[in-house]
Design brief:
Among the domains are: about 90 residues, SH3 type barrels (Roll), CATH 2.30.30.140; about 200 residues, SH3 type barrels, CATH 2.30.30. It contains 14 helices and 38 strands. Strands 1-2-8-11-10 form a five-stranded mixed barrel. It is elongated.
Amino acid sequence: MTTRSIVGIFVTFVEAEGPLLKVWGQIDRSSAICIERMILQYSEEFKKGCGVPHGSTLYSGLVCCARYEGDGVFYRAKITSLDKLHKGEIFVKFIDYGNTEFVSLNNIRVLNTKNLNALSSIPSQAEEFYLAGVIPPMGEWDANGLSFIRQNLCYVELKGVIVSTVCFKKLLLLLYDNTDFSQVLIEKNLGISIDISAQEVLLEGLFGGSRGERPEYATQQHLALEVPAMIEGEGFHISHVYNEGVNKMLTVPVLEVNSEHAVRVSHIEDGPAAFSVQLTFRDNVLKTLTDSLNDFTPRPLTEPLLPGSVCLGRCPTNGLLCRAVVMSVHEYKCKLYFVDFGNSEIVPYSEIYELPHKHMIHKSFAINFTLAGLQDISLSAEAKVIFSELVGNRMLSLRVVPPQGPRIKQYGDLYLNNQNVLLMLVQRLESLRRMRIFPSLPFPAIGAEELVTVSYVASVSNFFVHFEKNSGELDKIANYIEIHCSGNVSGIMANQLSSGTPVCALYSSDKQWYRAKVMSVAGDSVSVLYVDYGNTDILPVSSLKQMDENLMKIRAQAIACCLNGFQNLENNERESAKLEEDTAGKVLKMVVVDHMANGMLLVDLVDLQVAPSVNIGNDILTFFQSSHRDGQEDSARSVCQGSMHGRRYRSRVTHLLRDILLHDRLR
């Protein structure tokens, strides 16, 4: 007997099996997404090497996580062969997608912790079907035909009809744009028609046994009831699959590629790289659901919570009872993912309850998205702040695009008042970049000689100099910034600051104002770099003021240098202290040896105030090579402890030194 049942299927992989076309797909997409989100929590540990196995501990059939070469993301996999273990390669099947490949041993992660062990016990999410009604024209599927099929079917949510089950193999009529996909292949001469009865005979011949329906989906414990896919708006598809038992799952909407929707952003996890949207046409349904969940006395839990369990949790951000999925379990609390808003929170057991079955019928209201086109954009903290400002509490338009990376999220373009949000973000970043970059002094040519003073020594391989010929600029900056900061200049709030923000900063040692840029922000404490001297400081936000636009036009006066001969020296504290001692308050001759890849000058420093002149780098090397006394390791006090203006000490012999340098050049 043959019965027909309708399923919603998220197609994950397509492969040829003789004259048949095997289609792998996820019947319960929400379960697969939950699994991938659980794995994502451990991705950083995986990248650091946590869980890398020794080859001797592996065996065929072991469920693990493996990094998929196509996107660099870890997915659940089962080891199917160790024949090439001696070459460091493991053959695996990605059990939630159906595809197989060789994976390097270094890209295998065993599930040997308590929370990860739960992943190995969850059934495979990829189910196999055979496309009904079509076989290849020449007896086997060629590469071009398979490529066309994969491009059109993979990672798309479709409706299908199981028209027959033979030897536990299911024949699936797949609907593509409301058309039988086998007919699409036939019209494009990629396949020829075959009767279902003939295909049933073919299945019997390939797999043996007799016809008959499989009594249940043994590999999918929670798939007990299948309901036809529903459409609640153009481009909005969802498969309702659930049961009454402990493995209840909430369904997740999958929006059609190229469909457009009115949305609002409900939660931002990682700027434009990870955020959740709600479809505005479902606002009234969400309000009714939320009211209903909070209008009755919730029932305590009657079963243990496991990762993936559905529950009712009190959300800390709004104090309301909301539908949630358990992400991880701890001793007295759980991490819950609130499916209708997209945020994850830690919630104590006392605030977690049973979710009534009647509230399972609604799809998740939050849909996870990544903004399309981020591949060439650096996602700085500032970019994430700007994205939040652009989309927060706004009515937006979303256009869904094909996947551009890991498929645990959907991808789309956002529009605010018909303007592309990505372009707005890029424009804002570029505008700030132009505002926030102090112009740099041009580098002298290799071999060039300059008179300099050392303004700050971080180390012998990282110190800063001033060109003596530009000493007037430092005076100009000092005078201008004193006038600017003594006037009615507004302060700055911590939330206005990010890496690179230009500020006027009150130096903690001499209580004078200097030009600076923000390096990092931690609460009310701000790390700054003084761009005209090279030293850093940690200040309260109250010690910062807005930067004047005219001060932004003057070049940063500090030039970063590395002393020749010390570029590869790691432990250089003694040498750095000696450099600071030997250069303090002196005008030196600097000879440019090279332009380094890290943006520094590799230089020789020559002390012309002694006779004969001394190459400071050589002198430091000689000093420590000939010294055997521990007491010579005492560090000199930093000249930073006084006024930074004091570093602009100019000897009375400066002009004489310039004459000597000029004479050397002419000789």
